[in-house]
UniProtKB/TrEMBL annotation, chain A:
<dbReference type="GO" id="GO:0005886">
    <property type="term" value="C:plasma membrane"/>
</dbReference>
<feature type="domain" description="ABC transmembrane type-1">
    <location>
        <begin position="94"/>
        <end position="297"/>
    </location>
</feature>
<dbReference type="InterPro" id="IPR000515">
    <property type="entry name" value="MetI-like"/>
</dbReference>
<dbReference type="InterPro" id="IPR035906">
    <property type="entry name" value="MetI-like_sf"/>
</dbReference>
<keyword id="KW-0813">Transport</keyword>
<dbReference type="Pfam" id="PF19300">
    <property type="entry name" value="BPD_transp_1_N"/>
</dbReference>
<feature type="transmembrane region" description="Helical">
    <location>
        <begin position="275"/>
        <end position="300"/>
    </location>
</feature>
<feature type="transmembrane region" description="Helical">
    <location>
        <begin position="130"/>
        <end position="154"/>
    </location>
</feature>
<comment type="similarity">
    <text>Belongs to the binding-protein-dependent transport system permease family.</text>
</comment>
TrEMBL record, chain B:
<keyword id="KW-0732">Signal</keyword>
<dbReference type="InterPro" id="IPR039424">
    <property type="entry name" value="SBP_5"/>
</dbReference>
<feature type="domain" description="Solute-binding protein family 5">
    <location>
        <begin position="86"/>
        <end position="468"/>
    </location>
</feature>
<dbReference type="GO" id="GO:0042597">
    <property type="term" value="C:periplasmic space"/>
</dbReference>
<dbReference type="GO" id="GO:1904680">
    <property type="term" value="F:peptide transmembrane transporter activity"/>
</dbReference>
<feature type="signal peptide">
    <location>
        <begin position="1"/>
        <end position="22"/>
    </location>
</feature>
<feature type="region of interest" description="Disordered">
    <location>
        <begin position="30"/>
        <end position="58"/>
    </location>
</feature>
<dbReference type="GO" id="GO:0015833">
    <property type="term" value="P:peptide transport"/>
</dbReference>
<protein>
    <submittedName>
        <fullName>ABC transporter substrate-binding protein</fullName>
    </submittedName>
</protein>
Length: 307, 546
């Protein structure tokens, strides 16, 4: 187990370097960011040169990357164009997005798996058909439509919630945005669980458990669900990264000042430091989430062992 | 409260498709505060792009804060745009080149420090100095010694202070310019010329976290990227004291969300009504929607460095293109009258006396498809048979109007391939292509005035090699007239000379004027006395909270 974890951690290094390099190059390809700083007029050349020097943009790309990575390992993620340290931006943005992600994942786990189990056990019944239909609609409607719709209905028309989230972004204000963010994944989790349950319901070990005379509840939770959850856990695990990085749309609709907001602004302003910094952390989150998923397999299914 | 009627239809349709939700009823929003002048106004805001220093802020979001926190020697009247003395007791000159400034007595910064002549001189020296990376440094370019503290060619800076600035007393200082510039005092209302307290120089980082100025508001707290709380400074010595208790500037990433928040009664003031909501704003807000002229003009510039566009005879093609654009229809249908068809190269906010001259462009800006076609043919046709209008696609919904302009040109020429839009991904990339002279056809050019002077609409944009002369248009005649106008001490004569220069620009069609832009804003029923100044900034200190 220990060796497996170490091997996985070592594998992260090339992935990490490759991913950051790619992002770094991509942002660089977009061109010189200094020109965008002076509004609809030309930056005076002397100031522009000076700024380029200060942000290290006058050096060749490989050297910029090397310096950047060197700094990252000492915890210095550089400075954004507005003079703020990127670490400072992160410390304000990540907690917000993490909270949003927690809400979203909770929705996926609680609602998604419950619906999945219910429909999986009642395959072909009206409940099953109804839920399938609803998930189909949710999957096919883009997030921004769901978001704007809920915002207008609940926020403006009925006045149940405030249409935008305050800058502190406490959990209770994030419930609706979290639901919107989770909606599509939630539908997938439901369908995934349903299929998995329906399939395993006819498996030998379930029949054995029933034959042993175990109570129905125990058969479902201990035997059926545990084995059916493996694909669902994989999905939710990888989804954590996707939810954190992909919250741009939701964060914009509800005015949440999280990672999506910083990334969006960073890209618009071609701020390499911000974009690469945030994406680097997101890459790390992705890698760690994946590792945790793989380790969870062993917990869920004792037949899987890591040497 | 009235809801967003049009949006509601869309929502109902979608909702019906989703879960057959019934539509009807309306939310109830809006909380009320006290009417004793202590109510707080909440207003939409965008994250400033640059550090919040007076000489480093060149966009409207940072400008909003500076406008509340600072007062300079002059201040532009919120209604007329006229430059009036604020901290200046008097600014005297006998030759339009040497000025003596006397600062009014009794002004302090909100931390108690007195505003003296030194506060100004130190601030200006800081702003001009190359090593401080101030993006508005060129504003000090008229002051003698600028070339030493800010060598344009990238050479080494040989002085730290401007030799043209001298403190001669506690409240007096002299300014020596490197050329005659009669209206120079009127430029001093620009934020870059604000005074700075000692705290700015002593502990710069702390100052940036919580700027200290001498305006009617003081920064109470500032959470970067999310909210800035400004509160009325009780001991403010000026006569434009705030009528409210303070302003909360909330950062919105999407102006649609800000508008929704306004509709829900969550926000008091939106000073940037999204283009998609302009249609509904009038019915949603009634007289709480304001739409007033601002000192902004949109034009199409041409790459004169490209031999296809710069060669002689092309002025006919450029004039032809101008006449092929149906400005009236586009401003009415796409912009819902938040733009006015341009008939000169300045802005109505200048007023007649200030140099705005309606109809100066004459026939060249009138829609006349027949004549347009004729002129373009006379000029040798479009280079390469097609014009591509470049614009940045990331902000400002430029696509809609560029497509409309192209449509108009295509209709006039009877050729549906005569004009196409050429979107550029990001603003920075767009600016890069411009500054590196890589444009091969006309491109979007917008200009928001720095100060309400006709000089500001002409010199930076069309003078040979001027800082914002993006198309590199050049005319000796124009330059001479501008120089003459700057040296002229009589305002009426100066304006006349500037207008002559503008006629030179017209005859060569150095840039096609499209429309004057208005500022638009919407506000909640909690607040009243809301107005936008000619810079399209809300006049916060006059807002009353009921």
């Amino acid at each position: 187990m220990g060796r497996y974890v170490i091997r996985r951690l070592l594998q992260m290094i090339p992935v990490f370097i490759g991913a950051t390099l790619l992002i770094f190059l991509m942002v660089n390809v977009m061109g010189d960011p200094i020109a965008g700083l002076c509004g609809d007029r030309q930056c005076d050349p002397a100031t522009a040169t000076q700024l380029r020097k200060e942000f290290g943009l006058d050096k060749p790309v490989w050297q910029q990357y090397a310096t950047y990575m060197g700094n990252v390992f000492t915890g210095d993620f550089g400075t954004a164009f507005n003079g703020q340290e990127v670490t400072e931006l992160m410390s304000s943005a990540f907690p917000v997005t993490v909270r949003l992600t927690i809400v979203a994942v909770l929705f996926e786990v609680v609602i998604g798996i419950t619906l999945g189990v219910v429909t999986g056990l009642r395959r072909g019944r009206p409940v099953d058909t109804g839920v399938l239909l609803v998930t189909l609609v949710v999957i096919s409607v883009p997030t921004f439509v769901t978001g704007l719709l809920l915002q207008l209905l609940l926020g403006v028309k009925w006045g149940w919630i405030s249409p935008s989230v305050s800058s502190e972004a406490p959990f209770d204000e994030l419930i609706v945005p979290g639901l919107v963010l989770a909606s599509v994944s939630l539908a997938y989790v439901t369908r995934l669980t349903r299929t998995s349950i329906a399939e395993n319901r006819r498996a030998d070990y379930v029949r054995t458990a029933v034959a042993k005379g175990l109570p129905r509840r125990r058969v479902i939770t201990r035997h059926l669900l545990r084995n059916s959850l493996i694909p669902v856990v994989t999905f939710i695990g990888t989804d954590i990264g996707a939810l954190m990085g992909g919250a741009i749309v939701t964060e914009r609709i509800f005015n949440i000042h999280g990672v999506g907001f910083q990334l969006y602004q960073g890209i618009l302003r071609q701020n390499t430091q911000t974009v690469v910094g945030f994406v680097t952390v997101l890459v790390l989150v992705f890698l760690v989430a994946n590792l945790l998923v793989d380790l969870l397999y062993a917990v869920l299914d004792p037949r899987i062992r890591y040497a | 409260m009235r809801g967003a009627t049009h949006a509601r239809w869309a929502v109902c349709a979608t909702a019906a498709a989703l879960a057959a939700t019934a539509c009807g009823g309306g939310g109830d929003g809006g909380d009320s505060g006290g009417g004793d002048g202590s109510g707080i106004v909440s207003s939409s805001w965008g994250d400033p792009q640059n550090p919040l220093e007076p000489a480093n802020t060149n966009e409207v979001q940072g400008g909003k804060v500076l406008d509340m926190v600072f007062r300079g020697l002059k201040r532009y009247d919120a209604e007329t745009g006229e430059a009036k003395d604020m901290l200046a007791e008097k600014i005297e000159t006998s030759d339009s080149q040497n000025f003596t400034v006397t600062v009014k007595d009794g002004w302090t910064f909100s931390n108690g420090e007195a505003v003296t002549a030194k506060s100004f001189v130190d601030a200006w020296n800081y702003g001009a100095s190359l090593k401080n990376n101030q993006k508005n440094a060129y504003f000090f370019g008229y002051i003698d010694g600028y070339d030493k503290v800010h060598p344009e060619d990238g050479g080494k800076q040989t002085a730290d202070t401007l030799s043209g600035l001298k403190v001669t007393g506690d409240r007096t200082f002299t300014i020596k310019l490197n050329q005659k510039f009669s209206t120079f005092p009127d430029t001093l209302g620009y934020a870059a010329f604000a005074p700075l307290p000692k705290a700015f120089f002593d502990d710069h980082a702390a100052w940036l976290k919580k700027p200290v100025g001498n305006g009617p508001y003081a920064v109470d707290s500032y959470a970067k990227g999310s909210v800035m709380k400004l509160r009325t400074w009780d001991d403010y010595p000026g006569d434009d004291k705030a009528e409210n208790g303070g302003v909360d500037l909330k950062v919105y990433t999407d102006n649609n969300t800000a508008y929704t928040d306004l509709m829900a009664g969550n926000l008091d003031l939106v000073d940037d009504v999204p283009a998609s909501q302009l249609k509904n704003a009038k019915s949603d807000l009634g007289d709480r929607y304001i739409n007033t002229p601002a000192g902004i003009i949109q034009t199409l510039a041409f790459p004169f460095y490209d031999k296809n566009w710069g060669k002689d005879g092309m002025e006919k093609v450029r004039t032809g293109l101008s006449m092929a654009i149906d400005r009236k229809q586009i401003t009415e249908t796409i912009f819902q009258k938040t733009r006015t068809p341009a008939t000169d190269w300045t802005s109505p906010v200048l007023g007649e006396d200030g140099g705005f001259k309606e109809g100066l462009c004459g026939d060249a800006c009138e829609y006349d498809p027949k004549k347009a076609k004729q002129l373009i043919e006379d000029g040798g046709g479009l280079p390469g048979g097609q014009v591509k209008i470049s614009y940045n696609a990331d902000t400002g919904s430029h696509k809609e109007w560029v497509d409309a302009v192209c449509n108009s040109i295509n209709n006039a020429l009877g050729n549906d391939k005569a004009c196409v839009g050429n979107p550029v991904g990001t603003f920075a990339d767009f600016r890069n292509q411009i500054t590196q002279s890589k444009m091969s056809g006309p491109f979007r050019a917008g200009w928001q005035m720095d100060y309400p002077l006709i000089q500001n609409f002409l010199q930076p944009l069309y003078y040979t090699n001027a800082s914002s002369n993006d198309g590199k248009w050049s005319s000796k005649e124009f330059d001479t007239l501008v120089d003459k106008a700057n040296a002229e001490t009589d305002q009426a004569k100066a304006v006349d000379l500037f207008q002559q220069a503008e006629e030179v620009l017209r005859d060569d069609m150095g840039a096609i004027p499209l429309w004057y832009q208005n500022g638009s804003a919407g506000y909640s029923d909690r607040i009243s006395d809301v107005a936008l100044n000619p810079f399209s900034l809300p006049v916060y200190n006059e807002i009353k909270v009921s």
